[in-house]
Amino acid sequence: MNDELEIDLRKVIRSLLRRWMWIVSIALLLGVLALVFSLLQPRLYEAKAVIALTRPPYQPNFDSRYQSLSPITLNSKMVTDVALGDEILGQLLNFINQDTAQQISAEKLREKLKIEAGSDQSVLILSARMKKAEDAQRLVNLWSDLVVDRVNTIYSGRDENQVAFFEEQIELAARRLELAGKNLEAFENRNESAILINQKNSLLAMQNEALRRQRMIEVVNRDAQLLLQQLNALPDNSTLPPYEQTNLFLLYSRVYADTLTPLSPMTSTDTQVVISQNNAGTQLMIPIPEANQQLNKETAVLLLETWLESLKRQNAEIEAVMEQIKNQIEILQQRIQALENEKKRLELEWTTASETYTTLSRKYDETRIAASDSSGFARVASYAEIPDNPAPRGTLRNTALATALGAFLAVCGVLVWDWWRSEEEPVPRKEEILAKEPLMVPKR
């Protein structure tokens, strides 16, 4: 089976020439139909407006800590998609149905509008066709204004809704700032940190005094024990030597002044720390003879042992007082820390509210300036005027294209028809061809 396709141009040309009337007739028929269709189309007026894509000359930014995002670069495709969006077409459709005598659908409106790039990609030409010249002019001018406003709203922040949004946020921020200020002021009126700190310092001073007296008692107790050992070494019923009696008087005088002002334990209430008068410190009250009176060993030992017992009791009382002081200091420290934490929290809330209000105010000013600015990413470079003459209907172009299309279709039809007929006709055999040909007899 031979899959090769052989094309004989002479046969093709002969076939086309044999059926030239069909080809010409079909071409003329389509051309006439296109001509009639074009002539029957209503005369429309076309108006054109020009939009230029630019960049705003400046962008307000009053707070360098909050930079505005860099604007994107517009191109004709982005603007074309926005211009042919349903929202803008809906507004144009309302204009046509309400302000003009025409009633058209959205699809028909799309056919009447056209947007294309100019000689530069930053220039867009908007055109609209209507039955009346005034309607075409008003429609394309309205369309250009809507496109410019929408593009600037989306890409350059020229939106009145943003201004209203910032006004609402500023009002909320002002109320938060006022509430934070009132809370901080109310806290300062009831803040007892200074009083509690003074009470804490007083307790710390008392604690230091108790520690000092405790160390003094330890030293005196050690010296008294040594003196007691020396007295026990003396013979029984012996008179105390003068130097030992002097040591006894000196030892007593070292603690006599401190024991006259005993420490007092502390108790606390809900608001302050007060001194309890229930347990006064034990004073060292022992009978001491005159300086020129001679003491024997037994009397001196008894006095010294009584004194040591008194020092021991006073040391225990100091321990109890120090424990109470420690507890009171911890309670005061917790209350002071709680007040400091609350103050820091309230100050942080006020600072945050103040910064939020300040930032929103600055951004509101930026947005208000940007919204009131006439410049943006898109501007109407030229509005349309009322056209004087109707737009061409393309009669010659449509007729020529229809005629050429008809001729092409006719040629294709003729070629397909001949190919189909050639496949149906049987191919003559070689013997039959030779039989039909006359024999060539050579001459003698």
Number of DSSP E strands: 6
- Helical segment count: 12
CATH class categorisation of the largest domain: Mainly Alpha
Mean of residue pLDDT? 76
Rg is 58 Å
Do you know the CATH architecture of the largest domain?
Orthogonal Bundle
Report the principal-axis shape. rod-shaped
CA-CA gap between termini: 46 Å
Question: H/E element string?
Answer: HHEHHHEEHHHHEEHEHH
The level of helicity is: 55-70%
What strand order characterises the main sheet? 2-3-1-6
Q: What fraction of the residues are assigned to beta strands by DSSP?
A: 5-15%
And the CATH topology of the largest domain?
Helix Hairpins
Summarize the helices and strands and which ones pair or pack:
Elements: H1 9-18, H2 20-40, E1 45-53, H3 76-83, H4 86-99, H5 106-112, E2 113-117, E3 123-130, H6 133-155, H7 160-190, H8 193-232, H9 242-260, E4 266-268, E5 273-275, H10 297-372, E6 378-382, H11 395-424, H12 430-436
Antiparallel strand pairs: 1-3, 1-6, 2-3, 4-5
Helix pairs in contact: 2-11, 4-6, 7-10, 8-9, 8-10
